[in-house]
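Handoff note, outgoing to incoming analyst
You'll be picking up this chain. Sequence as last confirmed:
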Amino acid sequence: MDALRSTLHSNSALLANKAKRYDEAQKWAGFAIDSIPKDAKDTDKAKVYFRRAQARVALKDLEEALKDYEQAATLAPEDAAIKSELARTKRTLADSIKREKESYKRFFTS
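Most recent structure output, in case you need it:
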C-alpha cells in the first residue's frame, strides 16, 4: 500500500510542477518521501527528491533544493538530469550569495 501511495504522491508532484503549482508540488513530493517503502528502488526515491527540488528552485528556496538534489544524486549518481540540475543550482546559489555580499558591502560602505 505504501508503494502505491508513494507513487500517487510522486505523480501528483510531477503534475503540480507541470502546472506551475510549486507549493503543491513541494507538498506532494514531501508526502511521497514520507511514504516511500524501505524496499523501493533508489531510482524511484531519487525521482521524488528531484521533483521536490524542482519545486523548491521555482519557489527560490535554493538551499533546500540543493539538499534535495544532493540526496537525489546520492541515490542515482549516474542520472544526467540530476547532475545537471545539481550543478545549475550550485551555480545559482553561489551567484545569489555573491550578489548578497556585494549588496551588503555597498550598504555598509556608503
